[in-house]
Each structure stands twice: as structure tokens, then as C-alpha cells.
Amino acid sequence: LTAEQAEGQSGMVKVMDEVEDVDFITLEIECRDMDGEIDVFWYKYTLREYQENIETRERKETRVEGGQEVEYTIEEDVPVEEWVVIEEEEDIASSFHLGNIKVDPRHASIRLRDIETCDDKGRERIGEEWLTVEYLPIDDVDELMVVGGISNDEISGGDPFIVTDQSGEQLVAQMAGEERGARTGLTILSILMFFIAFNLIIGPLLFLLIYVPFVGGGLR
């Protein structure tokens, strides 16, 4: 629907129209490529620090005791240097209007293509920082599509609730791909769980065959 067609409706809608009255966000970015303030429609901010942390790891050790090999599990604290997220803000988006329809995107799934990225990675030395900012400048926002529940000419939720600069066909294709990936992952997990459950059932039966004379070994 266009914004005009969606006015006065209730329930789930898919509205696409020109963006108006954006309550834009003034974002301060301190990167090598971009240093200063910029007005944005949406941003995602991640700050990492290179730290040394202690990680507990397990290793197996076999010892001979009383003429038999005994396996022990030994835990060791190992220093590990790695990038650690110390500050993060995800999917911070401005409220806006499509015609007379107000959209509050705070709880929406934001799906944008034409974003810009500032990636300022420090050296891999203790205390160095790595700043990554993804953002969509307000000047690049023209037309958006919103999928969600509308009430009193306002969209602020719904299942699903999506704000995107894609067309309907592109959005459907992307979601279909995500669904296929999720289905494949669940199928693999189901096969693994079935294998574990089958072994938990058959394992005790196989153990009992030890005590069956003559044919027990063959049956195992």
C-alpha cells in the first residue's frame, strides 16, 4: 500500500512511500576516514579492545598406575590475546513518517542495503581499540517499506516488524534464503540428536549382550 491507502486501517500492512519528517540522529564519528558529526537515519556502533584474558582449557593425560593406563583430564589457565567488544549499540534508527503514517522503528528488524561503514582497526597490541560504525546518512534516505501492525495511523510493532529500503520482491527473496539456511541447520541438528538418542537406547542393550553365552559377542 501507499501511505495514503494505509490511513485508517488496522492490523498487518505493508506500506511503501517517501520518507518525511525524520527525527534524525546526530552521530559523532571519530575514524580515520570520517571524523566529525553527521546526521544519520540509522547506525550500528561497535567498539572492541585488544585484551589479554585467561581461558581455561582441558587436556587429556594418560598415566600408568598399577600396571594399567589411567586417563586424567587436566584443566589449565592459558593467557589468550583477543579482540573483546566493550561497547555496542545495534540498530538505532530514527522515527519518521510515511505520509500521515508515523513509524517508530525501535523494535523493528532494520534491513538496509545502501549503508556506509567506518572501520578503524587498531594494532593487535594490549589496550588498542577497534571502532566500527555502520550508518545510513539522512541525505541517502528517500523511500522505505515498512511491514508491521498499524493502529491509529502508527506502526510501532507487529510480527514481523520490518523497515527496509528493499523492494517487496527483494525482501521476500532475502527472507526465503534465511529460512532455507535455518531449515538446513535444524535438519543437521535433528540428525545429530537422533543419533545420540539412538545410542542412548541401544548402548545398554549392547552392554547386556556381554553376559549372553556363546552368541553374545556375535550379536554385538
What report would you give on this structure?
This protein starts with a helix and ends with a helix. 13% of the residues are buried. The protein has helices spanning 3-6, 168-208, 216-219; strands at 11-20, 25-30, 35-65, 68-93, 96-98, 101-103, 109-111, 116-121, 129-137, 143-151, 154-164. The protein is 22% helix and 53% strand. Strand 8 and strand 9 (129-137) form a beta hairpin. It is an alpha+beta fold and 220 residues long. The strands form two sheets. The chain has a five-stranded mixed β-barrel with strand order 1-5-6-11-10. Strands 2, 3, 4, 8 and 9 form a five-stranded antiparallel sheet that branches.
- State Rg: 28 Å
Overall pLDDT confidence: 89
Distance between the termini: 66 Å
Largest sheet: 5 strands, mixed, barrel
Number of helices: 3
Overall shape: it is flat
Query: What order do the SSEs take from the amino end to the carboxyl end, as H and E?
Result: HEEEEEEEEEEEHH
Report the helical percentage.
Answer: 10-25%
Structural class: alpha+beta
Q: Strands of the biggest beta sheet: in what spatial order? A: 1-5-6-11-10
Uncertain segments: none
What percent of residues are in strands?
Answer: over 45%
How many DSSP-defined strands?
11
